[in-house]
Amino acid sequence: MDGVVSYRKRRGVEAFMLGFSILLAMAGYLLTHLNRDASLPPLWPVALITLGGVGVGLHLVIRWRIPYADPLILPLVMLLNGLGLAMIHRLDLDDLKAPHSAELQLTWLFVAAAACIAVIVFLRDYRVLQRYPYLLFLAGMTLLMLPMVPGLGKEKNGAQIWIQLGNYSFQPAELAKLVLTIAFASYLVEKREVLALAGGRVLGLDLPRPRDLGPILVMWLVSLAVLVFQKDLGTSLLFFGLFVVMLYVATEKPSWPILGTAMFGAGAFGAYLMFGHVQTRVSAWLDPFSNYDRNYQVIQAQFGIAWGGIFGTGWGLGRPDITPLPKTDFIAAALGEEIGITGLITIVMIYAVIVARAFRAALGAKDPFGKLLAAGLGFVFAIQVFAIIGGVTRLLPLTGLTTPFMSQGGSSLVTNWIMIGLLLVITHQVRRPAAVVAAMPMASLEGDTTELIDVSPLMATPRPAAPPELLIPEGSPDDQTGQLPTIDADQPTGPIPATGPISTSDETAEIARPDQDEATTWDATDTEVRP
Amino acid sequence: MNRPIRGVAVVSLLMMLALMLNLSVAYVAQTDYFYNRPENRRVTDARFGQDRGAIMVGNTPIAKSSEVSDRFLFQRSYPSGELYAPVTGYYAYLYGASGLEGSYSAELAGQDNSQFLSRLINLASGARPKGGTVETTISAKAQKAAWKALDGRKGAVVAIDYKTGAIKALVTSPSYDPNKLATHDLVDSTKAWNQLTTDADKPMANRATKEIYPPGSTFKLVTTAAALENGASPEDSIDGSSYKLPGSTKVINACAGGKITLAQALKVSCNPAFARLGVAVGDAALREQAEKFGFGSKYLPEIGSAASRFPDELDPAQTAMSAIGEFEVAASPLQMAMVSAAIANDGVAMEPYLVQRVLDSDLRVVSQTSPRKRTQAVSATTAGQLKQMMVQVVEGGTGYRAQIPGVTVGGKTGTANSDNKRRPYAWFTAWADDPSVAVCVFVEDAEMASSEIAGGRVSAPIAKAVIEALR
Prior knowledge:
The structure holds two protein chains of two kinds.
Chain A: H1 11-37, H2 44-65, H3 73-93, H4 101-122, H5 133-145, E1 153-156, E2 159-165, E3 168-170, H6 172-195, E4 198-202, E5 205-208, H7 214-229, H8 233-251, H9 255-274, H10 276-286, H11 296-308, H12 331-364, H13 368-392, H14 410-431, H15 435-438, H16 441-445, H17 456-459, H18 468-471, H19 485-488
Helix pairs in contact in A: 1-2, 1-3, 2-3, 2-4, 3-4, 3-12, 4-14, 5-6, 6-8, 6-13, 6-14, 7-8, 7-9, 8-9, 8-13, 9-10, 11-12, 12-13, 12-14, 13-14
Chain B: H1 2-36, H2 41-48, E1 55-57, E2 60-67, E3 74-77, H3 81-88, E4 91-92, E5 96-97, H4 99-103, H5 105-109, H6 116-125, E6 133-136, H7 140-150, E7 155-161, E8 166-173, H8 178-182, H9 186-198, H10 220-229, E9 237-239, E10 243-244, E11 251-252, E12 259-261, H11 262-268, H12 271-281, H13 283-293, H14 316-323, H15 333-344, E13 348-350, E14 355-359, E15 365-368, E16 373-376, H16 380-396, E17 409-416, E18 425-432, E19 437-443, H17 454-470
Parallel strand pairs in B: 1-6
Antiparallel strand pairs in B: 1-2, 2-3, 4-5, 6-14, 7-8, 7-19, 9-12, 10-11, 13-16, 14-15, 17-18, 18-19
Helix pairs in contact in B: 7-17, 10-12, 10-13, 10-16, 11-16, 12-14
């Protein structure tokens, strides 16, 4: 098995680190009370059991369904979520109007964990998501545009990125980022060859063909609409950046990100010149003290982080409640105040590790859809953390994005946990050994990348396809928990068995047609054979 | 696809790195800037909640901090609030600090540069920072005696040790209770503030140092000093008959049929005699003498004061009125105490001061005030003559109510009633040889009909009480 990386499950590592994460989050909770009342909160065993229960539940489901999933992701996400909960609880103590946000957020954590478990259990083969690019694209765009609908959209904190349904408000961009990441991935898998074709050459750059500029123009206009009408640079940057980055990953053409950056820069600058509220945001960023009342929130956040200094005031000992919205948009400022610049940098590093694990999964994924999806998910987290923490700390103009896993808010928490569920499933597919196929001679011929194990023959650039019979699995691999094609066959979505290449390699199959039943999309992008 | 993925991964991690760098650089470098912004409530609150040191009178704190369980941790309290309010000032969350609380805030909080060493020790030993102590020069006995003698009437009393300049008593009435402003119940604090600032009696006005009033006949000391310095003698005789002001129809009523000596004129506080004397020495000489006594200057920066005023550019009629402490002449009780003090101290005016020592939290002395000569207000000869004349005022003149057996007391009464609509201001400024103290008593609302001797009747007994309290 030369050249084959074989991963260990590392579930024990995950369990140990999960325990450590929960202890750290509990430490925040207990220290808050020790610092403030010099006594432990009476409900601390309940909190420990609840948080521990969520962790153990997720861990067990991972052991059962996706035992090869990345062992770092779950503990890190639990740590962020736990610290967020502890901080929300700490802010509850000083919040007379809403003293039970932490309990509410804990309830949302149950929902989010359940959603994540559902993804892990029912979506072991993520490739089913690849089937509906246009439908998902439409759904994502609708979600993104919802806050602009009069009567439905609601302006909060200067950005119109909320919708109000009854007395429940919801940030549709949160769900949109999940839906659009999947939509972009499946669309680009289909179109990447076309988009990679070179047009003219300018300044040493291969520009795309003008006729291929349609999609990027659409995304550009949507992003500008978000910037201008929803007044939110973060959301705008998130979606356009995501699209451009995934386009780049799919086509490998540097001209796309360069073009995209230029377009976004020009658009943002134009919006700055034309619209007063964009100028207001920029002046609040560059010179907040020019208008103390208007920029009160961002100024107070600066005061808070400065007050915390390098090591923070300690849990419960700062004044993060002075800053408006400390539980949602400005939770990073609250954490910066109480656990210091050191603590906030640590949190950024935790995000960085999660992002790194996502990109690692993207590198290791064997199918282009998995690669694009993992890279997209990783970049969504990266750019979101960059935009919101950068906004709070005045590296960027302030945006209304949430801090993933930490901000109070159900829509964001559930969406982010679903994304983590997807990521875990992808990492499982990446890391699990594929003993059957790897043993075959064709596999070693594909040894141009280290991670190639099983599906590589099908991913490869067009070559004479392997004889179909070689690709038919002889049975379920050892590591599988009884996942046989027949078991999944009765699932409503008609998923593709995840046991490796089942493909019949019918190269001529129509791509991404919903009524298709088996995994014909494995190598669809590799062959431009179209009907 | 792996090459672009690596590129995007690098870009993502660079974004994270940018966040971390920005955090490190922005906050570490800008902490001082953010701390010094006046809007920074975290800093002002923390300063407000510091364990501040006490302000002491003798061995008794008149302002102290005690631990409480609210968010500010320490509550400032004033055990004899009204009595010492003009000295301590207040320390309130919404209204800042005044008096010594304001001017010695850094020392009281232990944040002054002079306390750097003890701060360092506290930091090293992990002890909670504590403030320094401010020791005042006030004598509790004199302060209480003055407060009691004023008995709620509007007015002020200032007593100065004329050999050093140390303030022994500084009373203003009506006063206010700084506890009501210092309370952490901000609603109560606001109510108290609104009530105090709209009160027609102006309880927060410091009548002892920050308000100036026509000094009336007490100003005759300055006129006399100017005359003596310009060659006159106590035995010179002056016309005490009624005096029609030059270029005016106003007549100053006679106090004697004919000529009286200067000493006698002071003893009976003869208005026409001093009006004529003032015109004779001229407004320039009067102004120069007044300034030597301290008119036009401010003292006691620790609590603030208003400069007393001798007007510019006077015609003879105005000079005549100014010479008897009317027209636009105005002085603070502190200033009139300083006139007596300079005379009693052989003409040497000492710089008044209110803070004796500042100690750090470990009771090390970080600063100490030493007596400082301000000016030679009059020559020692003139001072001796004036002292003798003032003793006569008390022994057989308008100030007889200030007599104290066994103590030589010199004084001068004054009643300013230039405006007939209000009751006269009753003044008395005096000194004693033992204790070496100069006192000025000012009663704004003398609750008696206008008459020449209001100062003697109302104010002299108060001065006497203060001098006796200091024996």
